[in-house]
Inverse folding.
């Protein structure tokens, strides 16, 4: 009984953490396809908020240019780890479902993905 409870709690927690992490990355992360705009926007924001001089702006630009590939590598690994955990959790869920429920679960997952793609 305790083992099933632990399994259910870990599944639910994994799904919640995965959903929140995915949302946060999508909403607040620097977009790979828009990295120049994100970088420029970030520099402009800090320039305004911190009253940076021209020299500081150039230094900030260099720092951001240096760090950006490192952030991309971390994001790529994080996304791969997150996807792996989500796949593992889905497989665990499938083990407790009947064939009919497994089919419905696949439909539900498809609907969830469709909804997240639309936001």
């Amino acid at each position: 009984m305790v083992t099933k409870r632990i399994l259910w709690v870990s599944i639910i927690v994994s799904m919640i953490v995965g959903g929140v992490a995915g949302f946060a990355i999508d909403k607040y992360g620097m977009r790979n396809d828009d990295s120049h705009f994100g970088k420029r926007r970030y520099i402009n924001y800090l320039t305004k908020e911190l009253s940076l001089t021209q020299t500081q702006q150039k230094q900030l630009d260099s720092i951001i240019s240096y760090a950006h590939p490192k952030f991309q590598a971390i994001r790529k690994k994080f996304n791969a780890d997150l996807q792996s955990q989500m796949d593992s959790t889905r497989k665990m869920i499938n083990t407790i479902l009947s064939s009919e429920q497994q089919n419905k679960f696949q439909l539900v997952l498809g609907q969830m993905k469709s909804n997240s793609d639309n936001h």
About this structure: Helices lie at 2-28, 35-50, 54-95, 99-117. The chain has a mean pLDDT of 81.
